[in-house]
Write a sequence for this structure.
């Protein structure tokens, strides 16, 4: 089986939204990434799996601007980019949901969605007195949630700390997916959640995909990965060992590739 | 890898809205309301206290007495605004009283000793307040020292500077330009006499409540106090927000110095030793959480009024000062316990 080139339903002629070519990143004598390439197509969920130290997080950090690769190319919608800070990646529409949930518990859902990008009232009230357009932001937050198909958050005026873990994750994901972002990167989104809440989040990932927003999902949880991913990028020893699909390989195969017991 | 541990099918539909709010018992419903409106519990306490003291002594509810309470509260109430700002960022400022006294001494000395006109003297006080705030903020943001330690240090530094600068002597209000003691003047509103200082304090509250509640800066102050890391990841310049909070607090303290000069009709280096802790008391009783990110300036005004009402009411009831202090101590512990209980609102 030649797994490295397996394509799911995605035709190869489509232009990848995010493309990485031969990324290399070393930390002193430790090689974090040893020439990794990756393509992310519109409307797909690409899972990245790998053992500890395989270079998953380094890869993600290079894609989201948290680390600067030593060499290699990164393109967003065909345009070459060089991210120096996470803000650069964000400016290109790449939003990351961090494992430790970057939400503010005491603020309500709408305030969290607009945190760091608040909108002011039009006219002198907004320009001179810098008054926030609270109503407008609440309305837009609702619209965005509806557009993203997030139905677990009915009331945008509820403080986030009153929400369940799954709903908080939904707020964090909505933050990342809203306002014209192109790529959503989720770092272990189900790690801290129960079964039911995990399913909620996985459904959310599918909903985002169905609305055309590509998702990169980093996870240790094989069942979750196989449940939701269209393609699976397997990192091993700083390299991409294989890119498989849930149809072409079983979980046992994936684990075997991950640990080096098999070579795709 | 455990393969058999396959996750169940995706949740059937989205029947999850019912777990939205913790509404199981009447008690948790009360808790939700208190959680949503942090100024509600101190408002209830103030109302009850006023009614009880009014019943105990009919002199309590007389307009002259109520007017006196507001004047007694004006300085602490102003310092409490600065304290609220800093506590909202999960900090604490032990030096507010010391900064205020230092600013008041500088204002008085420059006006009386150096013969500067009133407005310039007040401007000098503002510069002192901003410089003190900048120093605290610099130590907190650049050296990442805990605000408690920073302000414990600067408390002593500012006290020492005040004594060095003033030589330990008090400047009497009668020798100052009228503008400096203007905050102590009163004007009649119907049967009540209101002092300019009280009005100034109330205006500060209105302005700060507006800024905290309606502007992006205000929301960032809450976000930084709530979860610093989350705020940083959301793209908020955390250190810049913290620095601006300490500067704003310094400016408020300078105005507090002006109100203090008017209230006591003097500038004394030995005044206001209790004010550092009294401002924290007002903020805490007002329902602002010491853990940051939760509370309001209105709560602090209520907190300052509660302390004022208790002290005044107990002394009218003929009780020793000792019992006033005891009552304030008990109030603090109750307030913090209630805050902890309210914070448990998340299931």
């Amino acid at each position: 089986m030649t797994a490295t080139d397996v394509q799911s339903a995605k035709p190869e002629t489509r232009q990848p939204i995010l493309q990485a070519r031969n990324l290399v990143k070393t930390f002193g004598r430790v090689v974090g990434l040893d020439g990794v390439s990756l393509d992310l197509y519109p409307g797909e969920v690409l899972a990245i799996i790998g053992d500890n130290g395989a270079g998953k997080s380094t890869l993600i950090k290079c894609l989201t601007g948290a680390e600067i690769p030593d060499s290699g190319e990164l393109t967003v919608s065909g345009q070459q980019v060089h991210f120096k800070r996470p803000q650069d990646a964000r400016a290109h529409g790449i939003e990351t949901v961090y494992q430790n949930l970057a939400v503010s518990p005491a603020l309500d859902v709408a305030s969290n969605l607009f945190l760091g990008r608040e909108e002011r009232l039009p006219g002198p009230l907004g320009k001179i007195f810098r008054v926030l357009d609270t109503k407008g932001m609440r309305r837009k937050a609702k619209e965005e949630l509806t557009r993203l198909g997030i139905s677990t958050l009915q009331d945008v005026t509820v403080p986030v700390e009153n929400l369940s873990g799954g709903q908080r994750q939904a707020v964090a994901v909505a933050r990342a997916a809203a306002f014209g972002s192109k790529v959503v990167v989720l770092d272990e989104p189900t790690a801290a959640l129960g079964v039911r809440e995990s399913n909620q989040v996985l459904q959310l990932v599918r909903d985002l995909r169905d609305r055309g927003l590509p998702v990169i999902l980093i996870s240790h949880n094989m069942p979750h990965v196989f449940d939701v991913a269209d393609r699976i990028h397997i990192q091993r020893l700083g390299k991409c060992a294989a890119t498989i699909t849930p149809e072409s390989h079983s979980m046992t195969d994936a684990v075997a590739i991950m640990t080096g017991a098999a070579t795709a | 890898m455990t393969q058999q541990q396959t996750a169940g099918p995706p949740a059937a539909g989205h029947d999850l809205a019912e777990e939205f709010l913790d509404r199981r018992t009447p008690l948790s419903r009360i808790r939700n309301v208190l959680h949503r409106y942090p100024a509600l519990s101190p408002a209830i306490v103030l109302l009850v206290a006023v009614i009880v003291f009014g019943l105990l002594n009919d002199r309590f509810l007389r307009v002259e007495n109520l007017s006196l309470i507001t004047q007694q509260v004006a300085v602490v109430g102003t310092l409490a605004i600065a304290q609220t700002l800093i506590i909202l960022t999960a900090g604490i400022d032990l030096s507010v009283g010391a900064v205020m006294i230092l600013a008041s001494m500088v204002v008085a000395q420059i006006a009386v000793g150096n013969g500067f006109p009133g407005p310039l003297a007040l401007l000098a006080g503002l510069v002192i307040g901003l410089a003190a705030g900048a120093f605290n903020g610099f130590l907190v943001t650049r050296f990442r020292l805990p605000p408690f330690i920073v302000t414990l240090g600067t408390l002593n530094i500012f006290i020492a500077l005040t004594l060095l600068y003033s030589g330990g002597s008090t400047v009497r209000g009668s020798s100052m330009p009228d503008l400096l003691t203007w905050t102590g003047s009163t004007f009649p509103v119907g049967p009540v006499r209101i002092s300019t200082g009280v009005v100034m304090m109330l205006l500060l509250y209105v302005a700060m409540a507006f800024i905290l509640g309606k502007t992006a800066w205000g929301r960032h102050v809450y976000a930084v106090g709530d979860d610093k890391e989350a705020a940083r990841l959301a793209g908020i310049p955390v250190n810049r927000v913290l620095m601006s909070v300490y500067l704003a607090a310094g400016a408020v303290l300078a105005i507090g110095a002006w109100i203090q000069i008017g209230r006591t009709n003097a500038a004394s280096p030995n005044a206001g030793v209790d004010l550092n802790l009294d401002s924290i008391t007002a903020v805490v009783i007002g329902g602002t959480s010491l853990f940051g990110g939760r509370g309001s300036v209105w709560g602090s005004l209520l907190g300052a009024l509660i302390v004022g009402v208790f002290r005044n009411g107990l002394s009218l009831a003929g009780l020793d000062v000792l019992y006033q202090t005891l009552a304030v101590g008990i109030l603090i512990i109750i307030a913090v316990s209630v805050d902890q209980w309210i914070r448990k609102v998340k299931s």
Q: What stands out?
A: Residues 195-210 of chain A form the longest helix (16 residues). Residues 1 and 148 of chain A are 37 Å apart (CA to CA). The first strand of chain A starts at residue 18 and ends at 27. Chain A has a mean pLDDT of 86.
